[in-house]
Amino acid sequence: MTEEKMRFEAEVSRLLDIVVHSLYSNKDIFLRELISNASDACDKLRYEAIAKPELLAGDAEFKVRLLTDNVRNVLTIADNGIGMNKADLIENLGTIANSGTAKFVEALTKSDKGKDVDLIGQFGVGFYSAFMVANKVEVITKKAGEDQAWKWSSDGKGEYTIGEAEMEGRGTQITLHLSDDFKEFTEEQRLRHIVKTYSDHIGIPVVLMKADGNDETLNEASALWTRSKSEITDEQYNEFYKHNSHAFDDPWKTIHYRAEGAIEYTGLLYLPTMRPFDLYDPARKGHLKLYVRKVFITEGADELLPPWLRFVSGVVDSQDLPLNISREMLQHNPVLTKIKNGLTKKVLSELETASKKDSKGFDTFWEAFGSVVKEGLYEDYTNRDRILKLARFRSTHSDDWTSLADYIERMKDGQKAIYYISGEDIDALKRSPQLEGFAAKGIEVLLLTDPVDEFWLPSVGQFEEKDFKSVTRGGADLNDIKSDDKDDTKDDKKDDAASDASLDALIASIKIALGTNIKDVRESDRLTSSACCLIADETGMDLRMERLMKQHNRVDEISPRILEINPKHSLIKKLSDVAIKDAKAPILNDAALLLLDQARILEGEALPDPVSFARRLDLVMEKGLGS
């Protein structure tokens, strides 16, 4: 037999290096991963055999077999599932197809040793955990419906070989040549314990093969979701979650129920604790599996849940769908639409209950998945109101999460809108000059840092008849809102400000100096300590939204903004005095351009002409030192 020697893909080699150096805290995990893969292979063949029953070829009883050899220190995990051909071996065992995995491995390499390694299973690469305990791994496999078997072999050190092989029947046999330190994994009692602990939920028998012929089934071998909830322990629920989702965290919530009536189905859904590493990867496949009468149909079907619930994993088993349903038929099946609506309502109900009874747990969940749930605010009109009530936000009120209902309860007399500011960094938002007037009056402002916020806000518009209004737009109407400070009145606002005449003169000079670089210059009622800030027109696009559109080439350039100046600021007062005496004073032109650049810097924007900015700044500083 001729063998072909090949090298692992770079990411696989790096991943193997991490695994081999014993970063897994629990070595038992390798057996759980290999049994899980074997179960998946059987599920895939069961589905393929619906249309092609000849693939079963007289071997319709699926099982996973464990064979041990204490003398040679060998453990074999064999299944009679769908098997692999040469191309499958290269794709599945020589490369990592998931596009997010390279980034994951990069992050893992830089992380604290062992801190994130348990995330590896999320990427479907649990097979490589075999190299934790084995110094050599051999795979012999034959794909159902094909005649040629193949052998894959590697010591996990950068290369593997593939060649033709002989094998009776279909399926996959993985033989681990165990390292001397791991002889325990050939002991029957050890294997019995691991399977019972981690793989009891597997829907097909896991059989320990014995020399005397008294083979022993080690697991319950019945689909977990078909059992009564009273018969299932929390540990069994958790292990099924890890098997189904390729996850290593425990689920935050488990939803197990049976829907009866016009349509019947069983749902076993999990809300995770930890955000999947590839949650925002467009190529990511979901982990919600569809079964029809316990026969696996597909995984990650978009027809089962809306995209904004893509972090939900588990199983849905329908009694009404036909066994031979295709992916094309799934997209337009009315039964599946009803199941999708039922599942969505069930998850929302669970979240609503948790938000009231477990506020800390819900806040932790929202920290991880809130940005995804908010996608439903513009994608899912039917459930928009329920999602909006669930939504949590950071605000200037405190460091804790707040709901919109709580925000409205704290609104000031005369306040008619829900104010917000959006940006990339919450600490930078808190320092934004646009917030100064709101802070002075004790007006709460939502601090939005998720890009999705720019998309749902325009489509939602308001909550409980209160409009959402950006503090970076005109028309703040702060003078109509009563302050917590009893001494705050409209009459004293100009006591320490530039006079109307001098301020008008300065505004006119700035407009001339800046020309088309700005849309307007106006007096500000939102600034208290900063000299100036930029805002968008009341009917214009929010500042951050326009920046995002520019980054994605959706607009050619940023539109001119409104420059607001603070009449109480010492710099503005001094410039006003200059302007009333000589509206054409040279210092006014440089000052106007410096004010605009200063406002741009505060917005986190790049200056269009840094050299000119530096020159003007040098001149102003020189004059200041000279005086």
TrEMBL record:
Say yes or no: keyword Aminoacyl-tRNA synthetase present. no
Write out the GO cellular component annotations.
cytoplasm
Recorded hits in InterPro entries, A to Z, give:
HATPase_C_sf, HATPase_dom, Heat_shock_protein_90_CS, HSP90_C, Hsp90_fam, Hsp90_N, Ribosomal_Su5_D2-typ_SF
Q: Which Pfam families is this protein grouped with?
A: HATPase_c_3, HSP90
Q: Which CDD domains match?
A: HATPase_Hsp90-like
Q: Which PANTHER family match?
A: HEAT SHOCK PROTEIN 90 FAMILY MEMBER (PTHR11528)
Protein name, entry field: Chaperone protein HtpG
